[in-house]
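Exam prep: given the inputs below (a chain plus flavin-adenine dinucleotide), describe the expected output before reading on.
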Amino acid sequence: MPYDLIVIGSGPGGYFCAIRAAQLGMKVAVVEKDKTFGGTCLNIGCIPSKALLHASELYEESGHLFDKMGIKVGQPKVDLAAMMKFKDEGVDGNVKGVAFLFRKNKIDTFQGAGRIAAPGKVEVKTADGKTETIEAKAIVIATGSDVARLPGIDIDERRIVSSTGALVLDKVPQRLLVIGAGVIGLELGSVWRRLGSQVTVVEFLDRILPGIDNEVCRQFQRLMEKQGITFKLSSKVTAVDAADGKLKARIEPAAGGAAETLDADVVLVSVGRVPFTQGLGLEEVGVKKDNKGRVVVDGHYATSVPGIYAIGDVIAGPMLAHKAEDEGVAVAELLAGQAGHVNYDAIPNVVYTHPELAAVGLSEDDCRERGLQVRVGVFPFAANARARGMGDIEGEVKVIADAASDRVLGIHILGPHASDMIAEAALAMEFAASAEDIGRSVHAHPTLAEALKEAALATDGRPLNL
Ligand SMILES: Cc1cc2nc3c(=O)[nH]c(=O)nc-3n(C[C@H](O)[C@H](O)[C@H](O)COP(=O)(O)OP(=O)(O)OC[C@H]3O[C@@H](n4cnc5c(N)ncnc54)[C@H](O)[C@@H]3O)c2cc1C
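Solution:
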């Protein structure tokens, strides 16, 4: 019997879409080429990186902070194999959870690479070479993304690694060279620095974390430098020589000029990700892609071919798990005749270092570019009672509000637990809150979240603890 919906790919976009469609009464099949469900996020992305960030942060704290708090544990040691096992257990629990959810929601799963043979028809090729064709009224492409590569730098996932290899190194590299100061490079650079590597980050642009508020990023960079990460901005790695068992990276100024050589034990190539559509048969079936290889969709996630939809990293927009998830839910609801919708103005973005950096909405730079008149309120964690009590006072909250209407346009948090606090900011933006609304909401004391309330009051020049 044909399905109502076939989802190709079981990452956050695909599995959320499948579950929501099943909840809405559709008969759903999921096709996944990998051995486990959950896609990049659960297997080689969000979850394993956060497990290593968590473990390495505790290791660092136990070495530096515990003593100050009066906790005597002696000199901590890293057992890397055990740390990797801890990470793998986290991944395993999560991917099994997705398999359980598929069963619970009566979703049929097909293990193999899916190819769209025609609208409504997906051919699944299993690892042993067998093929099977399944049919549905609608197909959702949720095939995600792959590592972006640099010409002339061959990733072997041992010494020249992508994020995938950087999550499974079997020893702490003495010198780690990170190419690209985006979120993945900074998170994994932080992990290995905490575990003992000397980390140098080379970035083509003159700033780190493009897209996030520049002033906040400059503070963030200073904190990363204080922790021991070296940055080479406006520079590019043009080659990595891997002869003689040593890695020698050639680094040139982005604007051209004399090159220098940097020795490294491991090079991490983290220059972004590219949409993954290999083997899907999009050209044959007529699904259009843009000049960056992303599947082109309209406001309802419909591709250029009727009955074929696409969501997540494979289409335009920020490559984030929660963006893929919400698009998965939206397209399922649209297929069921409901009003599925994603508010792209309120998608939080988080860097899970310490301190964490989290942002939602517009940066000051964005507002300037758009000619918006704004009021900006900043509140430092140094003036927050809870942060003081925790001895974790670096960073600030910045609230940007429209000067005339007071509507919140953006919130940026650099500080401890920013990833949790940004949820309040996203909710405020989703409900079109004013800075006054946040400033007048009662926040529990003592909490880090009070810094957000104070920053909102600061847009009107009336913070209470500053
Ligand atoms: C190291 C790292 C850390 C990250 N950390 C975060 C984070 O903290 N927060 C965050 O929001 N995002 C993070 N991301 C990004 C996040 O992982 C992606 O945005 C998210 O996984 C995209 O979801 P998706 O469903 O679009 O695609 P994916 O998760 O990439 O899933 C696509 C799935 O489709 C399958 N597939 C592809 N082609 C076929 C085919 N032809 N047939 C069958 N199956 C196919 C793939 O095997 C895969 O399982 C991180 C990424 C990396 C690499």
